[in-house]
Automatic annotation (TrEMBL):
<dbReference type="InterPro" id="IPR036704">
    <property type="entry name" value="RraA/RraA-like_sf"/>
</dbReference>
<protein>
    <recommendedName>
        <fullName>Putative 4-hydroxy-4-methyl-2-oxoglutarate aldolase</fullName>
        <ecNumber>4.1.1.112</ecNumber>
        <ecNumber>4.1.3.17</ecNumber>
    </recommendedName>
</protein>
<dbReference type="GO" id="GO:0046872">
    <property type="term" value="F:metal ion binding"/>
</dbReference>
<dbReference type="InterPro" id="IPR005493">
    <property type="entry name" value="RraA/RraA-like"/>
</dbReference>
<feature type="binding site">
    <location>
        <begin position="89"/>
        <end position="92"/>
    </location>
    <ligand>
        <name>substrate</name>
    </ligand>
</feature>
<comment type="function">
    <text>Catalyzes the aldol cleavage of 4-hydroxy-4-methyl-2-oxoglutarate (HMG) into 2 molecules of pyruvate. Also contains a secondary oxaloacetate (OAA) decarboxylase activity due to the common pyruvate enolate transition state formed following C-C bond cleavage in the retro-aldol and decarboxylation reactions.</text>
</comment>
<comment type="subunit">
    <text>Homotrimer.</text>
</comment>
<feature type="binding site">
    <location>
        <position position="111"/>
    </location>
    <ligand>
        <name>substrate</name>
    </ligand>
</feature>
<dbReference type="GO" id="GO:0047443">
    <property type="term" value="F:4-hydroxy-4-methyl-2-oxoglutarate aldolase activity"/>
</dbReference>
<dbReference type="GO" id="GO:0008948">
    <property type="term" value="F:oxaloacetate decarboxylase activity"/>
</dbReference>
<dbReference type="Pfam" id="PF03737">
    <property type="entry name" value="RraA-like"/>
</dbReference>
<feature type="binding site">
    <location>
        <position position="112"/>
    </location>
    <ligand>
        <name>Mg(2+)</name>
    </ligand>
</feature>
<keyword id="KW-0460">Magnesium</keyword>
<comment type="similarity">
    <text>Belongs to the class II aldolase/RraA-like family.</text>
</comment>
<keyword id="KW-0479">Metal-binding</keyword>
């Protein structure tokens, strides 16, 4: 029985639990997707290696195929041209969970937000829409796609949370994660000083900054 398989079973966070904002700052790269790509439901965390999908706006046959093509643990990263249609819903979510996929990032619309939240499956989309789709274009998989203005390749590490979404190039991921570890440790120190009454201007050496 695979019933009840959800993302909650994922115990190993490939991004070491770091937030999208920490990873962006640590990277010093242009890896932030457009802020218009948001979680379909509050509190979702998306984390995993990308499996890229080129679809066509208003047509979701590519996503039905992608669920079967993507390796377990991967995040579907789909370019649907930003189209405002319900390209993804509850049924595809159940199919993706059965295949143990980690989530969906779609430059386009999705629907069934309440049902997908109840299933605990992270979906980050440009918009939502109840409009149904054609089923004509079978899609192209594993080629670079553009989502939220950023090029994402299969294997890039995608992380999404309440602040936004970043895509770490696979060759840079370890370096960024190490820098994120150091950044979090440094900020813990800073916040301890702030709680003692020190100012952020002093701690960031900003007292002489600006005009
Ligand atoms: O129309 C579709 O193929 C998508 C959909 O509604 C679902 O996944 O529930
Ligand atoms: Mg449906």
């Amino acid at each position: 029985m695979n019933d009840g398989v959800t993302n909650c079973e994922v115990t190993h966070d490939l991004a070491r639990g770091h937030s999208s904002a920490t990873l962006l700052e640590a990277s010093k790269l242009g890896i932030a997707l457009s802020p218009e790509l948001r979680s379909l439901w509050a509190g979702a965390r998306l984390c995993g290696p990308a499996f890229t999908v080129q679809g066509a706006g208003g047509d979701n046959l590519a996503l039905h195929h992608a669920v079967l093509q993507a390796p377990p643990g991967s995040v579907l990263v789909a370019d649907l041209g930003g189209a405002r249609f319900g390209h993804w819903g509850e049924v595809l979510t159940v199919a993706a969970q059965h295949r143990r996929l980690a989530g969906l990032l779609i430059d386009g619309g999705a629907r069934d937000a309440a049902e997908i939240e109840a299933l605990g499956f992270p979906v980050f989309s440009r918009n939502d829409s109840i409009l149904g789709t054609r089923k004509d274009f079978r899609g192209v998989f594993g080629r670079p796609v553009t989502v939220g203005g950023i090029t994402v390749r299969t294997g890039d590490l995608v992380v999404g949370d309440g602040d936004g979404v970043v895509a770490l190039p696979s060759a840079e991921a370890d370096r960024i994660l190490d820098r994120a570890d150091a950044r979090v440790a440094h900020e813990r120190e800073l916040m301890a000083r702030v709680r003692e009454g020190r100012s952020t201007l002093e701690l960031y050496d900003l007292e002489g900054a600006g005009r």
